[in-house]
Design goal:
Elements lengths: L1 E2 L11 H20 L9 E5 L2 E4 H13 L9 H20 L6 H19 L2 H8 L3 H26 L6 H10 L7 E2 L2 E10 L4 H19 L4 H8 L3 H4 L4 E6 L5 H8 L10 E3 L2 E11 L2 E9 L9 H15 L5 H8 L3 H4 L15 E2 L6 H8 L10 E4 L5 E12 L2 E2 L6 H24 L5 E3 L7 E2 L2 E2 L1 E2 L1
Antiparallel strand pairs: 1-17, 2-3, 2-14, 4-13, 5-10, 5-12, 6-9, 7-8, 8-9, 11-12, 15-16
Organism: Runella salmonicolor
EC number: 5.2.1.8
Protein name: Peptidylprolyl isomerase
Length: 464
């Protein structure tokens, strides 16, 4: 085994896409297993502290990276291993620095990835047939790589959170670009939405409530709460720990959940409590100053059996109000949209990486939204339509086609935000590069002799 020293900033500019590719590689590997692919490639090719990189992981990453290259040069085997090593290094340092991600955030991302798979395969039934596994089993297998992705991203954000960009830095960067080399900006659009979530039907709510009351009665008769949570809770993260959520500070949990928890005495059970994630049976274990320790059993509604009448009624009314121009779209969105991520911005959708409201009008956009805009005029709104959110919830929404920016050569005036993001990304790359050079001293890295010819991060592999 060999040791490598990591300090090449070229990796950092592709870190986010690497993390996403890792999860897609996991999905692909799950599918390969379901189709009977040999797993004899599970040889350890690298180790970063307590994290291991298997040859199968490296192979699957290469396949996914090549499929996503879109005409650009795909990474070599050495470059792919380099990116996986740096990702594991972020995880190792995050563990040292106690950087964590909450279970509810992980579960939200798991639901979003499963929704992506459902759209890709056409239905959950097709997913089950393709992989030969239940949806819950697939969610369980996805959870760990998604958790690692989120922790690595959070670690990177921690490293760069204090970095800012000044207007003078942006102007200096723009002036440094030769006029004949200014980038060509493709068409972009600004889109707003007003979202209303479907409601759980009374019959479904009563069914979930009855199941939780049954579990409560069984615990009160002496049955073990942890066993029931492990068997029945649909919060897969905490279910593995018997429903245990650990200590939480006030304000960290959903208000309904926290309020119900703090009304309980130690070891007391709540009535079924409804939140945006489903219905919970909560048991308070102990309190410690401003913290409390609880566990729960979560049952989620079947999003295919939701009641669409309430959101349709509200959106039909809002559509008529906006059409007659008695209220502006942005004001209506702030007041009525149930999508917290866009409501405060007047319903505007934003790029998750840059935070910009200008979205590229290309294949990267949701296909259904892309086709809808093709039939709309700028300044118009759509009729209410069914919608599945990124985290798998059933909803309806109205779309507002706010503006379209035609393709053009970049200018300081029109593309200041985009140029600012480039400068910010460059400064973050430099900051993370410095961090890597320092952090390498705290992390143990070994690489299999097979890759001793690789030049990792510009540094030749050396003997340990």
């Amino acid at each position: 085994m060999k040791r490598t020293f990591i300090q090449n900033p070229s990796y950092l500019s592709v870190l986010r896409s690497t993390l996403a590719t890792l999860v897609l590689a996991c999905i692909a590997f799950m599918g390969a297993q379901g189709q009977g692919k040999s797993t004899s490639l599970n040889k350890v090719v690298a180790r970063v502290d307590n994290y291991y990189i298997l040859r199968s992981e490296l192979e699957e990453y290469m396949i996914q990276a090549q499929s996503q290259a879109q005409g650009q040069q795909a990474p070599t085997m050495c470059q792919a291993l380099e990116r996986l090593i740096v990702n594991k290094m972020l995880l190792a340092k995050a563990e040292i620095d106690s950087v964590i991600v909450e279970d509810k955030q992980i579960e939200s991302q798991v639901a979003a990835r499963m929704d992506y798979m459902a759209k890709r395969f056409g239905s959950e039934k097709n997913i089950i047939e393709a992989y030969g596994k239940s949806i819950e089993a697939l969610k369980y297998e996805l959870r760990e790589p998604i958790k690692q992705e989120m922790i690595a991203e959070k670690m990177q954000s921690k490293i760069t959170e204090a970095i800012k960009v000044t207007p003078n830095e942006v102007k200096k960067f723009f002036n440094s670009i030769p006029k004949d080399s200014l980038p060509y900006i493709p068409a972009e659009v600004e889109i707003g939405q007003i979202v209303r979530y479907a409601k759980v039907t009374k019959a479904q709510n009563d069914e979930l409530r009855a199941r939780l009351l049954d579990y409560k009665a069984r615990v009160e008769k002496g049955e073990d709460f942890t066993s029931l949570a492990s068997a029945y809770s649909e919060d897969l993260g905490s279910a593995q720990r018997g429903g245990d959520l650990g200590f939480a500070k006030r304000g960290e949990m959903l208000p309904e959940f926290e309020g119900a928890s703090l009304k309980l005495k130690p070891n007391e059970l709540s009535e079924p409590i409804e939140t945006e994630y489903g219905l919970h049976l909560i048991q308070l274990l102990e309190t410690r100053g401003a913290e409390y320790h609880a566990r729960h059993i979560l049952l989620r509604p079947d999003y295919n059996r939701m009641d669409m009448s309430a959101p349709k009624k509200v959106l039909d009314s809002l559509y008529n109000v906006i059409k007659t121009d008695t209220l502006k779209f942005e004001k209506v969105a702030k007041t009525w949209s149930e999508d917290k991520s866009t409501a405060d911005a007047g319903g505007l959708l934003k790029d998750q990486q840059s935070g910009s409201s200008r979205l590229p009008l290309d294949a990267s956009m949701d296909y259904g939204l892309f086709m809808m805009l093709d039939t709309m005029k700028v300044g118009t709104i759509s009729a209410p339509m069914n919608y599945r959110t990124d985290d798998g919830k059933t909803a309806m929404r109205i779309i507002y086609y706010k503006s379209k920016i035609e393709p053009h050569t970049a200018s300081l005036k029109d593309d200041f935000e985009k140029l600012s993001n480039i400068v910010l990304a460059n400064k973050k790359t430099e900051a993370v590069d410095k961090w890597f050079k320092k952090a390498i001293e705290d992390v143990f890295i070994k690489v299999d002799p097979e890759f001793q010819g690789c030049k990792m991060m510009g540094i030749n592999l050396q003997d340990n």
